[in-house]
Specification:
It is a single chain. By secondary structure, the protein is of the alpha/beta class. The chain has helices spanning 23-39, 54-61, 112-124, 149-154, 158-177, 208-223, 334-348, 364-376, 391-398, 417-424, 436-451; strands at residues 6-8, 12-17, 44-46, 49-53, 74-79, 90-91, 94-95, 99-105, 128-133, 182-184, 195-199, 228-230, 236-245, 249-258, 260-262, 266-269, 276-279, 282-286, 298-301, 303-305, 308-313, 325-329, 357-361, 381-386, 407-411, 429-433. The strands form six sheets. The chain has an eight-stranded mixed sheet, with helices on both faces. The chain has an eight-stranded antiparallel sheet with strand order 17-16-22-13-14-21-18-19, covered by helices on one side. It has a four-stranded parallel sheet with strand order 24-23-25-26, with helices on both faces. The longest helix has 20 residues, at 158-177. The protein is globular and about 65 Å long. The protein binds guanosine-5'-triphosphate and magnesium ion. Magnesium ion binds next to helix 1.
Amino acid sequence: DHTNADTLRTPIVAVLGHVDHGKTSLLDTIRGSAVSEGEAGAITQHIGATDIPLDTISEMAGELIDPSDFDLPGLLFIDTPGHHSFSTLRARGGALADIAVLVVDVNDGFQPQTEEAIDILRRTGTPFVVAANKVDTTPGWNPQDGQPIQRSLEAQSERAESMLNENLYEIIGQLSDAGFSADLYWRVQDFQKNIGVVPLSALTGEGVPDLLTVLMGLSQRFMKEEMAIDVQGAGEGTVLEVKDERGFGATIDTVVYDGVIRNGDTIVVGGQNEPIVTEVRALLRPRALEEIRTEKKFEKVAEIGAAAGVKIAAPELDQAMAGAPVRVVRDRPLEDVIAEVKAELAEIEVDTAEDGVVVKADTLGSLEAMANALREAEVPILRAEVGDIAPRDIAVAETANQDEHKAILGFNVDLLANAESELENADMKLFTDEVIYQLIEDYETYVEERER
Ligand code: GTP
Ligand code: MG
């Protein structure tokens, strides 16, 4: 139902992987090289995202890219901090990211959060490439700053190259164990069938031109149709995080993936209890090139179009949920938009049983991922909610019929201060972790030990 206002939007690229494998460094390098290419003005820093335009990508990729091969405007990168679940990134029941970069430390190979990311990529059908990072740590490495990886390999000793290859084939084997046929990206003929592995270093920048080239190529070839949007249409987005901001109260860091959102717009946002209907008071963007995590000063903008990251300030947002939909009400009845948001939330609603464990998670997406994993493990759920662990949750967990179900499984959540004292005398067990399968494994071990 797109009109002739159709334009191609920027593909959304999620960068994910295990803690410390180099996600943020990779983005810093992409930003940094972009600046050194003299294109500083062209990069736009968003809330939780960085927009790199095609011109800049093409300068960085040098001989690898001919910009006239592309008509997508560039790439919008989203960093996912190690403690933050990639599963937050959902949109219209699917994945918010159009494409993903799975960062794997060449020395460490697959780690728990790598496995978790792979599971979610598989479930959401998100195309991805693997960035085999930190090639510069190979003993005897001869760094070739910012060069394409083949150039860099030519400069390496046979010994260094074969040591790197050993690690790369280890990763390719791990991908195969996870059910993905993969190869070094220059050997991949069909990127829909095979996962491309790009050896690179976020530290020296070698191989980064290759990564950008592969990402542009993949987006252009396989996603062009999905990128066609009505730039004047009602904005649609996903809440990444709910944050208190001085002078603004509760705000939502949002990725807009369709249409445009304007100051003063009425929006509907998924909330803890019911959809929140409110009016945009301010649309905030970080000042140019400042790091979002340390950014304190924002710039007010009148409107922002997809794809983009923006902080939305509006009344009543304290009940908003990470992972929930955001919809602009424009040209159609408010009731319809509320119904749409409700329908989307209902999709994520977890099936609960008469008896079972209590589940708490940081975002809607991670709650859904927890529910899926528990269903597979045949662990019933009594109650599942987004949010930190409160005294009420402890009380609910204690009401479970079977003793083994008197438990709270908390994923990426904290124990609220007033719940701490209650926990001491509580007739239930608390499990928390930042890795879903670890959390479930701990619970299962506990159940097994009880039965002995
Ligand atoms: P979380 O956000 O905590 O999950 O970590 P991350 O994946 O963003 O990792 P980050 O970029 O913070 O890097 C972790 C550490 O690895 C830092 O000390 C980096 O300097 C180092 N590092 C990242 N990439 C490279 C690389 O290519 N080579 C070398 N030698 N070190 C790297
Ligand atoms: Mg990071």
